[in-house]
Every structure is written in structure tokens, then in C-alpha cells.
Amino acid sequence: MRRYLQILLVSIALLLLPSAHSESTISVSTSLDTFSYDLDSIHLKLEKLSTRWQLSPFGEGDLLIEQLKAKRLIITVKNSDTESKESPLPKSIKLPFPITIEQSEINEVIVVTGEDRQIFHNVKLNFEGNAKTLKLNLSHATTPWGEASAYVNMSATKPFNLSGDVSLKKTNTDYPYDVKAQLSGNLNTINIHSTSWLALQDGKINLLKSATKQAGAQIIIDAQLELNKNYAIHVRGQLLELSPARLGNYPEALLNVDVKLDGALKPSLNAALTITTHDSVWQQQAVSGSVTAQLIDQTLEQLSFAVSIANNQMKGTGNISKENMHLAWQADLPDMSKLDQAYAGQVSANGTIDGAIDNPSATLKLLAQ
Predict the structure, then answer these.
(1) N or C: which end of the chain has fewer CB within 10 A?
(2) In the chain, how many domains are there?
(3) The pLDDT of residue 271
(4) Model's pTM, two decimal places?
């Protein structure tokens, strides 16, 4: 989710940039060493800027920028002493005249938010804006998460209704992906929808934006982000018809899972997580399960889970983080054959898992027949 939001931030900042830039370049000069501009809580700085443009003296005075090149764009999101207060949206985004950018290339875009710093390379885009609408087509950007593209169509008046999409593709990884998300809403609330499929290709599990006959599951995500002081977030996810056997050397099963996440991104991620299964089977045995936890930054706190396969049950509670984990669990398995035909008998066990994730320690009490 944060990957889409970072790319959306860059897109909106770039979308607002031409109005600032145009006010400073209606002159004979076509190059600047540096150019800075403040947009409320965002500071923009362009380095090594050159343009080729035409200004029509007729009508509203259309500005056509045939080419815009820059070595670097630095987008700094300012910290505010009044951060707890919500900043009201302006009534409109006013361009001095209609602007069209046919071709824009920025070698490097740096987004600075507090201590966080994200870098995007080879950013290419075109833009069209007037008193009614602002249209940005981000045709390419190399990001920390892969190759990205985006399209945003936004109204120039409050509440700045918008629509568009964001795409991400990365192939040189253990789990390749090529996904796309649709955007809607406005600058108060942004809605994100994504549908993708899991499939085994070239020995790797891929996440794809298009359905294939080899798909082993479908993933549907609907998210809502409120652009308020806490950046409230609500996510509804579905993992449908997951067939592990189609994704590798796994047992036959058919699983359907629902995921809910409700919370806020600021000052750090704090959200309630709920995972439940429905209409699921494991090797022809009914499966049910649930997980609840509080997701705080990268830690799962107040974790509680329960899973049953036929009459076999397992449950546990605890907290999980990278550096420190404590998990207490209990398993009552009166019929092991329901888990795998290769096993028989019954098992009753309980134990704990403690320590760092990469170096845990465990205790176990086991009673088996």
C-alpha cells in the first residue's frame, strides 16, 4: 500500500509543479541552474532545468512546453508544528494560463519525509492543465519497488475529484509482480482498487494483473485512505480460490480468505488486523480459521489465532516482532489422518516460541499415540 502512496505523492507533486514553473519561465531564458517553489507543506526544488516552449498570444495565452529536462527534483514534505491540525484544501488550483507539456524527463526525483528518503530515477511524463482539469501521464519511473507508471486526471477545484491508475512491475526478484491499481476519490479521501492473480511461472510464484489459465488464486484489494492528520486507512482484501497445488509442490486444498485492516498511518502504522477463512477445504476436509492482531509499525501485538481442520484444532496467542517474539500455542489433533493420509493416531501438544525471528527458541510438551 505504501508503494502506491509514494508513487501517488510524486504524481500529485509533479502535477502541481507546472503551475509554479510556468510563472517563472515566461522570459527569453530557457535554462535555470536551480528553481525552488513552496506549495503549502511541500517544497519543490529543480536542479539543472532546461525547456523549449511556445506561448500563444491569442485567447487565454496557451503555453506549450515541447520539452522539459531536469537533472533532479527534490520534493520535501515539511514537518509542521501544527501537524495535529488538518490543513484545509484551497478552493482551486489556479494556473496563469492553459499549459501543455509534451515531453518531460527528470533524471532523479527525491522525496524527503522527515527521516525517510525515497529516490526515483528516469522519470518521464507529460501534462495538460487548464482552469477545469489537470491531467498527468507518468509514462515511466524506476522506483525502489520496480518500474512504475501512473495516470491521474484531477479536477482543478475543491474537493479535487480524481481518477487514474498506478502500475508496478518487478521481475528480478524471488517473487516477481506486475500489478495495477485503480484510483478514485478526491484530495480528502482516495480509494484504491486492485485485482491480481497468483500463478507459477518459470518456477517462481508471480503476482499478475491479468488472469491466466495457470492461476492458483485471485487477490482483490479495496482500500480507502483519508488524507487527514492521521491518514486513516481501511483495507478489505480477498484471497479467492487459493489452490496451493497449482503454485508448487503443496497438498491439495482450496482456500478462501478475507482480510480487514483498519487504523492509521501516522504518526506510525497502527491498525487492527482480522483474517478469516470461509468455504475452504484441506485435502477434502473442512477448514476454518481466524487471526486477530494489532499491527503497530512492524510488530504484531495482541495476536490470537485459531485453526481447525475437521476435528483437529490449533490455537495460540502472543506478540511477534523481528527482534523479540513470544508465542504460546496448543494443538489438539485427535485424528492425524485428516491432516495427511500418511499419518495416523492422535497428538496433544503445547509449547512456546521466543526470541528473534531469525534465531528463535522453543519449548514443547507432547503426548501422542
Answers:
(1) C
(2) 1
(3) 98
(4) 0.85
